[in-house]
Structures are given as structure tokens and as C-alpha cells.
Amino acid sequence: MAYSYKVEQAIRAAAVLHKEQLRKGDMPFPYITHLISVAMIVSDYTDDEDVISAAFLHDTLEDTDYTAEELQEDFGGAVRDMVEALSEPQRDAGGSAVPWKKQKNAYAEQLKDAPQGSLMIAAADKIHNMRAIVEDYFDDHSKFLANFGGKLDERIEAYQSIADVLNKRLESEILEEFNRVFEEYKNFIIDVKATREEI
């Protein structure tokens, strides 16, 4: 990883802003573990400190009270642009919660015009999420359904819409890893569907 003062500040900001949050799943790991993992994956493919900093901060606008203006003041316009492109809409114009499927569709749309750094982070983010799910629930499909629920086909569709954009626009070797992990995830969901039909 390209360690620098900016990256250190991003690590500290992420740790403080997400300090009360836990990862969704059977084991409630501190949320910072996800951000560290995403940043480490990204750093396998770039040493750009703005991209690595944005990887640590990619969920701050979505999941904390940190504002885009504060992000720009603290880390600059390039980091702000990357993080904004990775932030799913949580509320609509009327203040109502945006449904999960609409959030994912909006995310995929945002990626169509996002900077390359955002695309790299999106790939790393999904790599970590999909890999964690497959590893944690490979032998316990019932627990996956209990913890995540929802329509399994919609999960595949959401990731596929993201994969379509990444395969069209992303110019990085991380794409190969993303596609490999996505195939594993799709096979896992197929197995989960089969298990649910047997119950």
C-alpha cells in the first residue's frame, strides 16, 4: 500500500466515522475491517494515494453524517468525486427510504460516468462483499437467508448491472479478479436457491 499522510488521515477518519458500526452478517466485525480490506485490494492494483484514501472513505457519505463538503475540505476534490460516485441514495426527494433495488440501480447508473478510481473501488468493494458472503455461508445457506433474505434473483441482477458497467469501462487488472469472484458468488446463489426449494 502507498502509505502517506493523506492515507493515514483517511484511515483515522474512517475509524472515527464508522466507530459504532458493525458489518452485517453472522459475526459482527467492526465495519472498519471492510474498509481496510477494500483499501488493501485496491492497493494491489494502484499506489495512487487519492484512490486508496477514497477506498477507506467510500461509505462515509452513505453511512455517516460526514458531508461532501467536509470530505472535499479534508481530502480534496478528487477523493470527493470518487466517493460521491460510490454513494447509493438513501432517501428520495420526499425523505422516504429508497428501496434496496433502486439503490443498486442508481449505483450502477452513477458508475457509468464515474472516475476510474471509483470503478476500481467499486470492484474491490464487491470483491470483498461477495467473497465474505461465500466464505461465511458456504456451508450454511439457511443462515444466509436468515441474515440477508430478499429476492435472490434481484441480488444477481444488481451485481450483474454493476459488472456490465465495470466490464465496459474499467481499465485495470482488478477486473479479472472481480469477474472470477462474481462467478463464485453466482454459483453460491444458485446453490442457495436449490436449498430453499428443498426446504
Describe this structure in words.
With 199 residues, the chain is mostly helical. It is built from 11 helices and no strands. The protein has helices at residues 5-17, 32-43, 49-57, 60-63, 68-75, 77-85, 100-111, 116-137, 141-148, 152-169, 174-198. Helix 5 (68-75) packs antiparallel against helix 6. It is globular and about 50 Å long.
How would you classify the helix and strand content by structural class? Answer: mainly alpha
Question: What's the story with the biggest beta sheet?
Answer: none
Helix content: over 70%
H-E order = HHHHHHHHHHH
N- to C-terminal distance? 46 Å
Q: What is the residue-averaged pLDDT? A: 93
What's the quick description here?
This protein is 70% helix and 0% strand.
Offer a few descriptive terms:
single chain, 199 residues, 0% strand
Layout of helices and strands:
Blueprint: H1 5-17, H2 32-43, H3 49-57, H4 60-63, H5 68-75, H6 77-85, H7 100-111, H8 116-137, H9 141-148, H10 152-169, H11 174-198
Helix pairs in contact: 1-3, 2-3, 2-8, 3-6, 3-8, 5-6, 7-10, 8-10, 8-11, 9-11, 10-11
